[in-house]
Amino acid sequence: MVTNATPKTADGKKPRKRASPEQRTEEPKAPPGTIAYFLAKARIDAGFTKTQMAEKLRVQLPVISKVESGRHEGSEGMIIKYAVALNCEFVLLFKPIKK
Question: Which residues neighbour 44 within 8 Å (Cβ) at sequence distance 6 or greater?
Answer without folding.
Answer: 26, 27, 28
